[in-house]
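Example 3.2
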Amino acid sequence: MRFSILTPAYNSGLFIEECLNSFQNNNYPNKEHIVVDGKSTDRSHIILDAYQKNYENIRWIQAFDTGQSNALNIAIEASEGDIIGWLNADEMYLPGTLNLVSEILEKNTTLDVIFGDTIFCDVSGNVIRLKSSYPLSKRTLYNYGAYISTCSFFVKRNSLKSLRDPKFNEDLNFSMDWDFFIALSKANLQFHYVPSPMGIFRVHEGAKTFNGNSPEIILERKRVVLLNSLGKSSTNPLWRVWHGLQKIIHGSYAREITFAISKKLPFKKKLLDL
């Protein structure tokens, strides 16, 4: 079972090395990391060139992509693995994540999608909180939004054949993850939730979704609703309450509180100390 980890990157010199190291620190042997970055003007290309020379399992594609979705599609096309993961350049995997996913899929061959919990950190790598999820709820996904984190998500390549269009929508700049998850769920793929942290999501002002209530993001969410015929109810703010209730029912808040207590949060704690 081979993993292909896809990373679209642009001017991520501040974080890309930590992203690459987190991939290497997962000691699963059969893996490849494909980074698409042809436009960066910072030190990203110096770092990528060095890592590509030092590690055979890293491939840097210098494509002049038209955006994040296009970069992901380029990476998928170039990838060879059985399992696809999406790790943005400012994100990281926790050690043991690839082994965990591999073990689950080997024991449960009917599964298509694996997703888990996510640790949030700040620009300096200080832990902020745990974001704990819960099993797939189409009602939540269609009406609340993408409650699954991409850095804690994996899908079988063969399962993508069930999609009408197994690519990311290149007309979307912010909500391509939500649109993609909706497509996977509508294809009735088998999702499996693991109540354990898999990825690390970095919160920083340079992230394009840092302001989730920006007019551009709100407008694009409405486009996703129309594209997927989700109906007017998906814009109802009461779905946030529904999402909260699901987290209570499935123990998500309890896991978040337990994590915060165990790590003595909200005091800042470096990821290396986890």
